[in-house]
Amino acid sequence: MSKGFSLIELVIVLVIVAILVSVAIPAYKSYSQKIRVEEETHKVFLALKDMQLKAKTQKMVFCADLTDGGRSLTIYKDTDCTSKEKDISLQVTFALKNPSYKLRVNKFGIFTSKNSIYAVNGEGASVNCVKTDSFRICEGVWDGTAKKCNCKF
């Protein structure tokens, strides 16, 4: 009786490990993409909440728009979207429901243009869109068929 592993036993173990890895890698990629979408959606949500708070406390108007092909959220200090305040880089591509309507906030912190920002490839994420209403901003799940963001409370 020999002590150790035979070549056949080692090959079988390697084949089993290879099968497990081939199943785990796509699942991990899908999971990490879902987490990335959720994190970036939350980043957009917080940026818009911050913009709304600044508008209210500083008594200024602000505007936000997606730039760089939806990979950046740009905040402006005016309603014309010309005086840039900051750029927020995004790792996920986002789009506006109504691209012709920028997100504008008046000096009272009220959104004067209602719109939604959604992750282009955000399927499966628990949150993948941000919706603005007059007084409220919410995160939700994008319904591509109805073209609307369903808020989660």
Q: Can you describe this structure in just a few lines?
A:
This protein has one domain (8-151): minor pseudopilin epsh domain (minor pseudopilin epsh fold), CATH 3.55.40.
Please provide a written account of the structure.
This protein has 153 residues and is α+β, with helices and mostly antiparallel strands. The chain has one domain (8-151): minor pseudopilin epsh fold, CATH 3.55.40.10. Helices cover 34% and strands 28% of the residues. The protein contains one helix and nine strands; from the N terminus they run αβββββββββ. The strands form two sheets. It has a five-stranded antiparallel sheet with strand order 4-6-7-8-9, with helices on one face. The protein has a four-stranded antiparallel sheet with strand order 3-2-1-5, covered by helices on one side.
Number of strands: 9
CATH architecture: 3-Layer(bab) Sandwich
Helix content: 25-40%
Residue fraction in strands: 25-35%
Cα separation of the termini: 66 Å
Largest sheet: 5 strands, antiparallel
Q: What is the class in the CATH system? A: Alpha Beta
Mean pLDDT: 92
Low-confidence stretches: none
